[in-house]
Design brief:
This protein has 449 residues and is α+β, with helices and mostly antiparallel strands. The chain folds into four domains: 3-105, no CATH class; 121-211, PAS domain (Beta-Lactamase), CATH 3.30.450.20; 216-296; 303-446, Histidine kinase-like ATPase, C-terminal domain (Heat Shock Protein 90, 2-Layer Sandwich). It has twelve helices and twelve strands. The strands form three sheets. Strands 2-1-5-4-3 form a five-stranded antiparallel sheet. A five-stranded mixed sheet has the order 7-9-10-12-11, with helices on one face. The protein has a two-stranded antiparallel sheet with strand order 6-8. InterPro entries: HATPase_C_sf, HATPase_dom, His_kinase_dom, Sig_transdc_His_kin-like_C.
Length: 449
């Protein structure tokens, strides 16, 4: 609205009221009936028009503010009908609505863009109202990671998985914290960080969850490559003194052959040198054999094989060891037609390693038993479970059991379970361990599609 025009309209109407009142005052002072009547009528008329002029504009403004209150910015005010100042007022209203709609569209576009980004990232993002537990935001990654359907309140998690609820919603992680979440008898290693923020007098908690298991596997694979490179270098360093000693002995023998009178051969020195070479060579052969086993496993040749056939082969291979230790081995296969797509040679090696460990774990246990079962998990993915009733593994070393060269046995190399994990990683699967001291151990092999 043009302020000068509005002021002029107000001025004219106010002046009309003043003039009418002057006429009325003049008539009263002179006792002039015509002046009194005329002044009264003119005063009423001028006051009425001033009132209607103001009220009409306040009604228009009140109507606009009512639309703003209910966020109805789609309304269009007529710019073609009514007084000029009203049309200008409507034009201003329409401009405000158009600007707000543009801002809202831009905000919606930015929100949609942000949502798409949050849906695409592999990191789980979750936000909820601390007081009511109402979910503000949960991207697909966090639902997939936790194997949960979409839910509206965190009380759903408390009912479904109290341990996960305590870890995520009851525990405050001021710094990035590593944690292991247990879901459907499976363990998932994650990094968790969270923060609390205020918005419109409400407190919200934002939780960020990152799956680090795949990252750890990739890093571990790279570590293997670096480790093997270092070991190759060490082997070459071990060969150097053997070669030098052999060259010295050869030179002494050659000199003794060419000059038997002046260059006498000291058989004791030769014997000592050969003993050193033999001892170093045997150690080097054992060392090389261990690392060669690891280096050979770089790819898999998958084939379709029935679980029953795999179990029959394992039973035949393990029978002598089981009879020697008086351990009972049971195979549980509910679906006789279950088929695995695996490298049978490598998986047999995994099963043999795990069963041998189970045999050792059941030593000095009454009625030692090992059960091997196969089936599908809750996601429809093939699994093999090996359970024993042995002494179990203490919690403080359970996380180290798959680390290369870590062993609880005095004569162990620490290679067996590390090799098993590498083989399962090559199958795009995983090997997990659940153990309780005095109860037994369960090893789960999961094959991903």
């Amino acid at each position: 609205m043009n302020s000068n025009s509005y002021r002029f309209s107000i001025f004219i109407r106010v002046m009309a009221v003043l003039i009418s009142l002057l006429v009325l005052a003049f008539g009263v002072s002179l006792q002039n009936t015509y002046a009194i009547v005329g002044g009264s009528v003119l005063s009423l008329i001028s006051v009425y028009y001033l009132y209607r002029f103001q009220v009409k504009r306040f009604v228009e403004m009140d109507d606009f503010f009512e639309s703003v209150k209910y966020r109805d910015f789609s309304r269009w005010f007529s710019e073609e009908h009514g007084p000029a100042d009203i049309r200008r007022l409507h034009s201003g209203f329409n401009l405000v609505n158009k600007t707000i709609k543009t801002i809202d569209q831009e905000r919606q576009a930015q929100l949609l863009y942000l949502q798409k980004i949050l849906e695409m990232v592999d990191v789980g993002i979750f936000a909820y109202n601390v007081e009511t537990g109402k979910v503000l935001w949960a991207n697909d990654s966090v639902l997939k990671m936790l194997n949960f359907p979409a839910f509206k309140n965190v009380s759903f998690v408390e009912k479904r998985s109290p341990k996960i609820y305590d870890e995520l919603f009851e525990t405050y992680h001021s710094n990035t914290t590593s944690a292991t979440l247990e879901m459907n008898r499976e363990k998932l290693k994650v990094l968790i960080t969270d923060t609390v923020f205020e918005m419109e007098a409400n407190s919200f908690k934002l939780i960020v969850i990152q799956n680090i298991e795949d990252t750890l596997n990739r890093n571990e694979s790279e570590a293997w490559k670096k480790l093997l490179s270092v070991m190759t270098h060490e082997i070459m360093n071990s060969i150097a003194p053997i070669s030098s000693l052999a060259e010295t002995l050869q030179l002494n023998i050659q000199n003794s052959i060419e000059n038997p009178s002046s260059e006498k051969l000291e058989l004791e020195d030769v014997n000592a040198g050969l003993r050193s070479i033999k001892k170093r060579s045997e150690g080097l052969m054992k060392f090389a054999k261990t690392y060669r086993t690891l280096n050979k496993v770089t790819h898999v040749n998958k084939e379709r094989i029935e679980a029953s056939s795999l179990f029959s082969s394992i039973h035949a291979l393990m029978k002598p060891s089981l009879e020697e230790k008086s351990v009972e081995l049971h195979f549980d296969l509910t679906d006789q037609k279950l088929i695995f797509e695996i490298d049978s040679y490598l998986i047999e090696q995994v099963l043999i390693n795990v069963i041998l460990n189970a045999i050792d774990a059941t030593e000095n246990v009454a009625n030692p038993q090992i059960t091997v079962s196969a089936g599908l998990n809750h996601k429809g993915i093939e699994q093999i479970r090996i359970m024993d009733n042995g002494k179990g593994i203490p919690a403080e070393i359970a996380d180290s059991i798959f680390i290369p060269f870590f062993s609880t046995k005095k004569t162990g190399s620490g290679i067996g379970l590390s090799l098993c994990k590498q083989i399962m990683t090559l199958h795009e699967g995983k090997i997990q361990l659940n153990s309780e001291v005095g109860v037994g151990t369960e090893v789960v092999l999961t094959f991903r599609n």
